């Protein structure tokens, strides 16, 4: 194996896979799990000339990354490798492509779409694949797409299918799924093994080599003292109390402390209550209270000015959509207090002490003469932008030679932009990436000697993935948090859960083989018979699509029926009723730096009811012919036979949406169009 460049610990963990067994490789971030998987694929194809390998990833950028950096360099030209994502035309001919290539690397959603498709050129069967590699396989849980795929695998297995692919899972952090005791931790890992029909393997003989190759960083808790005075936050809370008074006290609905995630959950429920009770006062007040709560959270994480700018952006839009006295009151309330908030935001005596601690943390390793590289993790895209501005305007950080760049997900950055940021980081033109969770797992980011988690309350998987990014010699991993905060407590819990994971895996490794198989078989039977897919199916068929009306979430005017919608490419929910165009007006043109094979963006669509102008979504031009309005379901209320309700995501709707039939749509709407 040495000619392939594997380390001893990689050789050790692939042995069972080379014998054809289903396994989960559990190795830390940066240890070369993907390289080990490439080796397994190579040996598999050498002994199985007719074999087909499918590599599943959970993020689009990993398709090209795994293809160009690992599979193509080590398998081509002997074996033909194809990368397929939602942007690739090959996704519509997946079955045909699989017949022509030896290795196909794709997103799990593309593969799932091919499995359930009825189109001959697109459809594929699991029996056509000989090796299925599942990257970041800890996502094989609940109703996530990995688990949908593997549930189909388990169903076929229980029906006695003669041919199923070998499974190879890769993970740096199986996670604990909420477990806090060893018994429940063991059950969680067993469930992952059951979902992937695999045993979990890790290094035993080569732990010393692994430690040298992937050294663990020094963990430091950089704790900031609590903010003694926060008049800006107090002013926001005073305004929120005025909104509460305007709503009138509700004895049947108690709100928890504002400025917390719990309060946000309460406000979401309050908005639903307003919709259900046809009470626009409750509904609109809830929307505004949520924005103020978001501003409190921003104030707690970054600067007062960042929180104020957030509110100003919201109210600049709201000032153009005044429908009734409720809107007038809420907008005027902000305007009456805006000058006071601006004055407080400029008073540096009350600035966030956590930023002072963050500055000290960065200056510990960054200085003009040092070749330091670091990643600063924060929760939201907005907080990364605020921190970027803070770094660029902080004299001490600039004198230390910090050159920052933002790295976020593809919702706000193109893959090219992500690649450019990582490339500049690799070359030293950038030495601090300010990133969301997109940088925690998967991305090929060069070694750095400092990882900082700031303003984050996340689980043990995210903590382990982020910590694994600090791979340089003598690197440091820092948590910057307020003393006694939930972030500090959660970090301590995550450390405990990381240790619990290792103990749980050790217990499973000591299990008798027959006992392990029995436990796995029991969990698999339960998953197939009572899994989330069945529950989701029941939820989505609660009402007929025609019996559900969609109402604009802002003005609560009925605008469509559920039966008007179709699902395009398992991604876009579009309204095919031509009368729907009368319900909306066009806003600005949508511009995307990414291009797509099947569609291109059009204009933003907004509610056409008087002064409402609530944003619903945008138009898309599909296959250069059909102009289709796509909408976000969170921008609507649902009138159902069981009463009014709201959902955040289309997957939670209580009715079924049919798939879009492009040929039929063209026949119905463009009868003169040539074939």
Task: Give a written overview of the molecule.
This protein folds into 4 domains: 2-212, 3-Layer(aba) Sandwich (Rossmann fold); 215-225 and 352-492, P-loop containing nucleotide triphosphate hydrolases (Rossmann fold), CATH 3.40.50.300; 231-350, Up-down Bundle (phosphoenolpyruvate carboxylase, domain 3); 541-669, Beta Complex (Metal Binding Protein, Guanine Nucleotide Exchange Factor, Chain A), CATH 2.170.150. It has 22 helices and 24 strands. The mean pLDDT is 90. Helix 6 (145-158) packs across helix 20 and helix 7 (182-195) crosses helix 20. The protein is globular and about 75 Å long. It starts with 7 loop residues before the first helix and ends in a 6-residue tail after the last helix. The strands form 5 sheets. The protein has a 7-stranded parallel sheet with strand order 3-4-2-5-6-1-7, sandwiched between helices. Strands 8-13-12-9-11-10 form a 6-stranded parallel sheet, with helices on both faces. The protein has a 4-stranded antiparallel sheet with strand order 15-14-22-23, covered by helices on one side. It is α/β, with parallel strands linked by helices and 675 residues long. The longest helix is centred in the C-terminal third of the chain and has 24 residues, at 486-509.
């Amino acid at each position: 194996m040495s000619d392939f460049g594997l380390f001893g610990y990689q050789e050790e963990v692939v042995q069972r896979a080379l014998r054809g067994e289903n396994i989960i490789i559990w190795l830390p971030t940066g240890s070369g799990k993907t390289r080990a998987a490439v080796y397994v694929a190579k040996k598999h194809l050498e002994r199985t000339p007719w074999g087909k390998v499918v590599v599943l990833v959970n993020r689009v950028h990993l398709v090209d990354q795994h293809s160009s950096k690992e599979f193509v360099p080590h398998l081509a030209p002997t074996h033909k490798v194809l990368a397929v994502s939602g942007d690739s035309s090959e996704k519509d001919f997946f079955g045909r492509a699989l017949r022509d290539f030896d290795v196909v690397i794709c997103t799990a959603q593309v593969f799932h779409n091919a499995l359930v498709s009825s189109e001959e050129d697109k459809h594929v069967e699991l029996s056509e694949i000989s090796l299925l590699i599942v990257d970041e396989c800890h996502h094989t849980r609940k109703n996530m797409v990995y688990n949908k795929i593997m549930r189909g695998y388990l169903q076929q297995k229980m029906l006695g299918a003669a041919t199923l692919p070998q499974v190879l899972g890769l993970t740096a952090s199986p996670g604990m799924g909420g477990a806090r005791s060893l018994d429940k931790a063991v059950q969680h890992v067993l469930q992952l093994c059951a979902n992937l029909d695999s045993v979990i393997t890790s290094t035993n003989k080569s732990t010393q080599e692994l430690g040298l190759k992937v050294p663990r960083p020094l963990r430091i808790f950089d704790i900031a003292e609590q903010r003694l005075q926060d008049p800006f936050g107090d002013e926001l809370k005073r305004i929120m109390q005025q909104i509460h008074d305007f709503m009138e006290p509700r004895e049947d609905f108690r709100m928890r402390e504002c400025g917390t995630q719990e309060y946000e959950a309460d406000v979401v429920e309050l908005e639903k209550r307003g919709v259900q009770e046809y009470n626009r006062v409750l509904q609109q007040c809830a929307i505004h209270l949520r924005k103020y709560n978001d501003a409190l959270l921003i104030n707690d994480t970054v600067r007062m000015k960042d929180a104020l700018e957030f509110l100003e952006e919201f109210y600049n839009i709201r000032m153009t959509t005044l429908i009734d006295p409720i809107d007038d009151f809420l907008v005027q309330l902000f305007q009456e207090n805006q000058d006071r908030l601006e004055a407080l935001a400029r008073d540096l005596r009350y600035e966030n002490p956590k930023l002072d601690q963050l500055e000290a943390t960065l200056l510990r390793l960054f200085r003009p003469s040092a070749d330091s590289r670091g990643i600063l993790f924060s929760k939201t895209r907005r907080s990364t932008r605020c921190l970027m501005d803070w770094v660029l305007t902080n004299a001490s950080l600039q004198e230390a030679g910090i050159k920052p760049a933002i790295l976020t997900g593809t919702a706000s950055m193109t893959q090219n932009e992500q690649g450019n940021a990582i490339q500049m980081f690799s070359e030293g033109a950038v030495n601090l990436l300010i990133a969301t969770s997109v940088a925690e797992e998967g991305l090929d980011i060069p070694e750095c000697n400092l990882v900082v988690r700031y303003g984050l309350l996340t689980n043990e998987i995210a903590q382990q993935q982020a910590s694994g990014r600090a791979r340089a010699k003598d690197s440091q991993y820092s948590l910057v948090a307020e003393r006694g905060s939930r972030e500090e407590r959660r970090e301590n819990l995550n450390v405990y859960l990381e240790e619990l994971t290792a103990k749980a895996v050790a217990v499973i490794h000591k299990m008798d083989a027959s006992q392990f198989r029995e436990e796995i078989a029991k969990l698999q039977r339960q998953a197939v018979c009572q899994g989330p897919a069945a529950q989701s199916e029941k939820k989505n068929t609660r009402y007929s699509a025609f019996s559900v009306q969609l109402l604009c979430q802002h003005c609560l005017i009925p605008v469509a029926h559920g039966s008007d919608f179709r699902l395009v490419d398992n991604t876009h929910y579009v309204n095919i009723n031509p009368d729907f165009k009368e319900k909306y007006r066009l806003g600005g043109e949508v511009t995307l730096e990414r291009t797509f094979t099947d569609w291109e963006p059009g204009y933003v669509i907004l509610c056409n009811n008087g002064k409402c102008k609530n944003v619903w979504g945008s138009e898309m031009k599909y296959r250069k012919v059909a102009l289709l309005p796509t909408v976000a379901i969170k921008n609507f209320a649902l009138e159902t036979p069981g009463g009014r309700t709201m959902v955040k995501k289309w997957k939670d709707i209580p009715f079924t949406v049919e798939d879009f039939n492009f040929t039929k749509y063209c026949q119905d709407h463009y009868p003169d169009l040539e074939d």
